[in-house]
Amino acid sequence: MAQSLGSLIRRIFWFALAVLLILFAISNRQNVVLSLEPFGALMAPVPVYGVLFLGIFIGLLIAGSVTGWLRLKGFARRRKAERRAGQLEVQVSALSEDVHKAHAKDAHETARAATQALPRGGKEG
Fold first, then answer.
1. Given this model, what pLDDT does residue 115 score?
2. Residues 40-74: pLDDT tens digits?
3. What is the C-alpha to C-alpha distance for residues 77 and 61, in angstroms, rounded to an integer?
4. Structural element, H or E, at residue 24
5. Which of 50, 81, 95, 102 could form a disulfide with 46, with the two C-beta atoms 3.0–4.6 Å apart?
6. pLDDT of 50
C-alpha cells in the first residue's frame, strides 16, 4: 500500500511539473537573442522556453556525465579491492596451512619424545 501511495505521489509530481513546463513554454513564446559575446556573428533568436529547456538539458548532461564518471571510478576501485581481497585470502589460507603443519610437527615431535622416554623404547608391558 505504501509503495503504491509513493508511486502515485511521484506520478502526480511529474505530471504537475510537466503541466507547469508546458504552461511556461506557451506563455513565453517570444524570441530572445542568444549570442556568444566575443563572437558577434554567433547570434540567434531563440524562444525563451528554448533557452530554459536547453539549460536544463545541458545541466542534465553535465550531472549525468559526472555521476557516470564517479560510478566508473567506484566500480574500478571495488574491482581492485575484490582482487586484493582474493589475494589476501589465498595468503591467509597458505599461512594457516603452514601454522597447522608447524603445530602438527611440534605435536609429533613431542609425542616422539614422550614415547622415547618410556621404558624399552616406547613399548609397554
1. 79
2. 677 888 888 888 888 899 999 999 999 999 999 99
3. 24
4. helix 2-27
5. 50
6. 86
Task: Give Dmax over CA atoms of the chain in angstroms.
Answer: 116
Residue 89 C-alpha cell reads as 585470502
Residues 6+ apart with CB under 8 A from 54: 46
Q: To the nearest whole number, what is the mean pLDDT of the chain?
A: 86
Residues of the chain with pLDDT under 50: none
- From CA 99, how far away is CA 92, in angstroms rounded? 10
The answer to whether the CB of 28 falls within 8 A of the CB of 49 is yes
- Cβ–Cβ < 8 Å for 35, 42: yes
Strands, E, within 1-125: which ranges?
31-36, 39-47
3-state helix, strand, coil in the chain (%, to 5): 75, 10, 10
